[in-house]
Design goal:
two-stranded antiparallel ribbon; 246 residues; mainly alpha; 2 strands; single chain
Length: 246
């Protein structure tokens, strides 16, 4: 099971707002798992680390993990190598993704994309104002994929998710980051489908590189335009595929 840390996953393990803490924790982990930010088999922090990161008690974490286990989002194992992990049952599949796409109308896909674009473009503009050298290095590192990876489409899906969240992290606007993660979770397993297409992967890889260059140059307008291009590429692909499905 995966234990590798992901810098952009810090958006998941950050202090909570006021309100029902257990609800917030469960929603945040589910959103991250659905969007691919947290991968099936990925280990969660231990209870003490988890509680410290979110600024809550260990009891609250236990309650949240119990709920996540009952919803089959998390599995917990005992022993020296045990811990709590994102359930392998959440691994994306083409069949499940296509079923999800069939459930959506063209209008629903377009509206979801418009919401996503508004948030992502805001993040890109803010990130262009704030990006430092370390931020640019982190973005470029995300886009590197091991050519020997076992499932290329899943790896590209994770890159797509992490890249957007990293831009939001660089923007340093917590509310925008939270809203962006929530919208990404609405896409859920859908994000697997376009990343099975090598032409799409090539197109968005170029756009991600362009966006990183725009952030490094602190060009807000160009960064916003390139982010729109990224969202448009995804939306166009999904709408085209939706029309093809029976």
């Amino acid at each position: 099971m995966s234990t590798a840390p992901i810098r952009s996953a810090s958006a998941v393990f950050r202090p909570l707002r006021s309100g029902s803490l257990v609800d917030q924790i469960t929603d945040r982990i589910l959103d991250a798992a659905e969007s691919g930010l947290l991968q099936p088999g990925q280990r969660l922090p231990n209870e003490a680390e988890f509680a410290a990161a979110l600024g809550v008690s260990a009891l609250t974490i236990r309650e949240a993990l119990s709920r996540l286990r009952s919803e089959k989002v998390v599995v917990t194992t005992r022993g020296r190598t045990g811990g709590s992990f994102i359930s392998p049952a959440l691994a994306p599949s083409t069949a499940r993704a296509e079923d999800r796409l069939r459930e959506l109308t063209r209008l629903e896909i377009s509206e979801m994309a418009a919401h996503f674009e508004a948030l992502a473009v805001g993040c890109a503009r803010a990130a262009a104002r704030r990006a430092g050298t370390a931020d640019v290095v982190a973005l470029r590192a995300i886009t590197v994929i091991d050519p020997d990876v076992s499932d290329l489409s899943v790896a590209w899906r994770q890159v797509e998710t992490e890249f957007i969240v990293e831009v939001a992290t660089i923007a340093r606007i917590a509310r925008l980051s939270r809203a962006l993660m929530s919208v990404q979770s609405e896409y859920g397993v859908l994000t697997l489908l376009p990343n099975e297409d090598s032409d799409y992967r090539h197109q968005v890889a170029g756009l991600r590189n362009d966006l990183t260059d725009r952030l490094e140059a602190r060009d807000e307008s160009a960064a916003a335009s390139t982010m729109r291009g990224l969202i448009a590429a995804n939306t166009t692909w999904l709408l085209t595929r939706r029309a093809e499905l029976k």
